[in-house]
Structure to design on (345 residues):
């Protein structure tokens, strides 16, 4: 039996008709997940050059009341039709990544149960966030920077824009996402955080800026973030901070500064976050640390391995009450004190 690729070179209309018949026979099962990538790929053989439009899928999901997870990624899908997802109103997760989508259509608004939407690696340059209510959107690796429309009150709680080669986070105009509580901008090319970053966003609780190129945080850039609990600045190019960098973060609980270029522990600046509980400083270039600086502190855990701190200073630090001093990824053959690397790396 021949298995040549040309055997699969059928028109999109014929393919969808065929798959519709197959799917209709499967509707008797309470099907909760569908990896559509497996079904559509044969349509996109080397000989076929036409891009598949969502219009070809109109009505294909009729009756799929139990479908909760739909993966349409890695196809040549171009646009959304108002009837595209009719019959699949109980979808909770929808992956439209790696397609040719340019415009977000209101058909998504019919998916009232949708909790997770992936639109990564398309050609979208505008997302009408004001029309989405509490969706968890994954928007990583977009080919263009995003802009926002806000004719209505936006209730977006979580925004993920990673692997997008983003240099200036202010271009996202995140300040208008006033209900935002969780922001992930990891794996980008951000170099600085200024006072316009997250202006007017007062309910933010978690910020992940890891794996960027951040060298500078302007004093006051995070002011009024009184609900912020976790701040991840690991894997950046930070060497230190100016007064006011953490001022006003009265509820900050966890601060991750690992894998930067910090050379000095700045007690006076870090204490601006007066209720900081966990501080992670592993894999920096810190040369010295004075145990007496921790005699009165809110910290309960300090992770400080793999720096240049003399072993004697680490030993004294371990004597401080109430602070659990730890390290990360210690090699048994490296010089260490209680699992914390010390001395010359």
């Amino acid at each position: 039996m021949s298995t040549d690729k040309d055997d699969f070179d059928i028109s999109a209309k014929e393919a969808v008709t065929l798959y519709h018949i197959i799917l209709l026979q499967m509707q008797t099962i309470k099907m909760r997940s569908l990896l559509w990538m497996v079904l559509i790929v044969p349509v996109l053989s080397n000989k076929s050059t036409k891009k598949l439009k969502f219009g070809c899928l109109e009505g294909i999901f009729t009756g799929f009341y139990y479908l909760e997870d739909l993966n349409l990624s890695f196809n040549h899908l171009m646009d959304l039709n108002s009837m595209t997802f009719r019959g699949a109103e109980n979808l909770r997760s929808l992956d439209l990544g790696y397609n040719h989508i340019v415009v977000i259509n209101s058909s998504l608004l019919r998916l009232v149960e949708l909790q997770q939407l992936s639109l990564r690696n398309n050609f979208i340059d505008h997302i009408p966030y004001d029309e989405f209510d509490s969706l968890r959107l994954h928007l990583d690796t977009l080919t263009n920077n995003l802009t926002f429309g806000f004719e209505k009150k936006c209730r977006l709680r979580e925004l993920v824009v990673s692997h997008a080669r983003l240099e200036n986070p202010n271009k996202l105009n995140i300040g208008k996402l006033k209900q935002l509580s969780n922001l992930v901008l990891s794996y980008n090319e951000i170099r600085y955080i200024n006072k316009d970053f997250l202006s007017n966003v007062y309910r933010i609780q978690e910020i992940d800026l890891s794996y960027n190129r951040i060298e500078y945080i302007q004093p006051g850039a995070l002011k009024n973030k009184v609900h912020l609990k976790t701040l991840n600045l690991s894997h950046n190019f930070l060497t230190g901070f100016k007064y006011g960098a953490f001022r006003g973060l009265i509820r900050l609980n966890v601060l991750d500064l690992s894998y930067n270029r910090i050379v000095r522990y700045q007690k006076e600046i870090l204490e601006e976050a007066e209720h900081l509980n966990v501080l992670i400083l592993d894999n920096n270039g810190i040369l010295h640390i004075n145990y007496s600086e921790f005699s009165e502190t809110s910290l309960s855990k300090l992770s400080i391995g793999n720096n240049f701190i003399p072993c004697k200073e680490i030993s004294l630090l371990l004597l401080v009450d109430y602070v659990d001093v730890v390290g990360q990824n210690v090699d048994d053959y490296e010089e260490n004190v209680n699992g914390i690397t010390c001395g010359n790396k």
